[in-house]
Amino acid sequence: MTVFILGVVDTTGTFIALENEMGMLDKEGRLIDVQKPFIVDSLTIMFAGVIGTISSGVFVESETGMKSGARTGFPLNRCALGLSLFFSPIITAIPIAVTGPTLMVVGVMMLTSTAILISTTL
Questions:
Q1: For 6-61, what is the HEC assignment?
Q2: What is the residue-averaged pLDDT of the chain?
């Protein structure tokens, strides 16, 4: 139950932020045609569990795909899956000491979207 609630909250927050940034919300600030992205995201979260990865990676691929023109994020999720399976031996060779600073940089970059969202709602 906790994973379900976490998935719904993460998906909702991600899509509200992305659609706000892309100007896809209606006049009252609500999501438009939200069923398709939720279905794609739920399928990729289930598949992430099957192959043994965490579901938060799905949101990164969804964001990148939506920003590059794929409105549901599915095309880039499919591409990322193929690339991750191909490059997984190389990725596992990267030491943990390198991933920490990289994740911190990505977190700072994500804060810009959060700051924009907060400033537009206030």
A1: HHHHHHHHHHHHHHHHHCCCCCCCCCCCCHHHHHHHHHHHHHHHHHCCCCHHHHHH
A2: 75
Closest-CA residue to 40 (of 52, 32, 48)? 48
Cβ contact 46:58 at 8 Å = no
**Whole-angstrom distance, CA of residue 101 vs CA of residue 69:** 29
pLDDT (tens digit per residue) in 14-52: 777 777 777 777 888 787 887 877 787 778 778 877 877
**Which of 54, 8, 56 has its CA nearest to residue 34?**
8
Is 114 within 8 Å of 13 (Cβ atoms)?
no
pTM: 0.46
> d(Cα 31, Cα 38) in Å, to the nearest integer?
11
CA angle centred on 86, ends 80 and 37, rounded to 5°? 15
